[in-house]
């Protein structure tokens, strides 16, 4: 008795529901990260973490649509008591609806749940819109291997580079000449190997001078904001650029080079002479980071208080540094919106390479990062 087969066709698009829901969830997470980014990046638990901490974000639950049939007899289109011009719905927050009112409501609210978001997800969203501005190709730039290309096929080579397709074609051609149209046997003389050249790409070198005021006038809020900015700047640069050096400089009346960990944790006190940091940066440009080999980006964060007699020297040193920089960024932590000596002096600088930003609250760190590291169109 013969065998019977049943051929059926199934709509496999129905099996994508789980994948589609996963994509919707992922999109909701991205939207929540973007919406809460300004708050998240200044969370102390993140700034002081080892980079592996997760953050919980409120995310709107995904609503599943379904058809519900009414048990009652309902009217159809064109029937009923309505008249032309009657209002059939009202927009806005009606009585009892969820909102910010003072009275209790009786309508359903929006369902939210908390989702854990990793540091990597936060960085992916934040860093996608950041870049070093005015990055130029410098002399004696480092070259790194970014890819490889097959430039030739040879009869000798290492086994790891054997080209199976070319080898089988060579065997087929030889066997055909001997009257057997077959890929086998494959003999040693049939083997073909790829010859590979490394594709080298020049990478521009860059150095960032992270200069932070640690004097007595910098209170806990000012120091925390400055460290928050430099924390995310450091992670961004190391993630997106392989040939960037970061030099950490702290100053009060004197400027000193610091290890990264000390820069983010040690406190200082004393008076303020901001020019000491600029002098140290200039000295390093002369000895270790010549402008003909490095794209130079000094960043200075302060509360704007400075020794009165030092402001003119700061401006003079800034004018001396700017011709060798791709950009100079000055960030001032000024939560009380007061006029500061340093910002007053810097307002006279009219070089487009000098950029300044005033941070008044924690949420301003994110726009400050976007301002200084704005991607070029």
From TrEMBL:
<dbReference type="InterPro" id="IPR006698">
    <property type="entry name" value="UPF0229"/>
</dbReference>
<protein>
    <submittedName>
        <fullName>Sporulation protein YhbH</fullName>
    </submittedName>
</protein>
<dbReference type="Pfam" id="PF04285">
    <property type="entry name" value="DUF444"/>
</dbReference>
<dbReference type="InterPro" id="IPR014230">
    <property type="entry name" value="Spore_YhbH"/>
</dbReference>
């Amino acid at each position: 008795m013969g065998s019977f087969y049943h051929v059926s066709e199934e709509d496999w698009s129905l099996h994508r529901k789980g994948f589609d829901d996963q994509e919707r969830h992922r999109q909701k997470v991205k939207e929540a990260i973007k919406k809460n980014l300004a708050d998240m990046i200044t969370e102390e638990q993140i700034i002081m973490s080892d980079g592996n901490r997760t953050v919980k974000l409120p995310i709107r639950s995904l609503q599943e649509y379904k058809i519900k049939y009414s048990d009652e007899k309902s009217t159809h289109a064109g029937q009923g008591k309505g008249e032309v011009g009657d209002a059939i719905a009202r927009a806005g927050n009606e009585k009892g609806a969820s909102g910010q009112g003072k009275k209790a409501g009786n309508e359903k609210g929006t369902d939210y749940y908390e989702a854990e978001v990793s540091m990597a997800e936060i960085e992916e969203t934040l860093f996608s819109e950041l870049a070093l501005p005015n990055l130029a190709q410098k002399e004696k730039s480092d070259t790194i291997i970014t890819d490889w290309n097959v430039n030739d096929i040879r009869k000798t080579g290492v086994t790891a580079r054997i080209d199976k397709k070319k080898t089988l074609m060579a065997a087929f051609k030889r066997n055909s000449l001997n009257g057997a149209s077959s890929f086998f046997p494959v003999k040693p003389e049939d083997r073909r190997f790829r010859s590979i050249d490394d594709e080298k790409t020049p990478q521009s070198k860059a150095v960032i001078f992270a200069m932070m005021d640690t004097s007595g006038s910098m209170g806990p809020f000012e120091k925390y904001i400055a460290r928050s900015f430099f924390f995310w700047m450091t992670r961004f640069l190391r993630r997106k650029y392989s040939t960037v050096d970061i030099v950490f400089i702290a100053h009060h009346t004197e400027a000193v080079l610091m290890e990264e960990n000390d820069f983010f944790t040690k406190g200082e006190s004393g008076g303020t002479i901001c020019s000491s940091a600029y002098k140290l940066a200039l000295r390093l440009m002369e000895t270790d980071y010549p402008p003909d080999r490095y794209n130079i980006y000094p960043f200075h964060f302060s509360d704007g208080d400075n020794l009165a007699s030092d402001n003119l020297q700061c401006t003079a040193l800034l004018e001396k540094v700017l011709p060798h920089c791709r950009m100079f960024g000055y960030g001032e932590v000024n939560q009380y919106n007061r006029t500061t000596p340093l910002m007053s002096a810097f307002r006279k600088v009219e070089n487009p390479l000098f950029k300044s930003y005033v941070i008044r609250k924690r949420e301003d760190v994110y726009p400050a990062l976007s301002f200084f590291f704005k991607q070029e169109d």
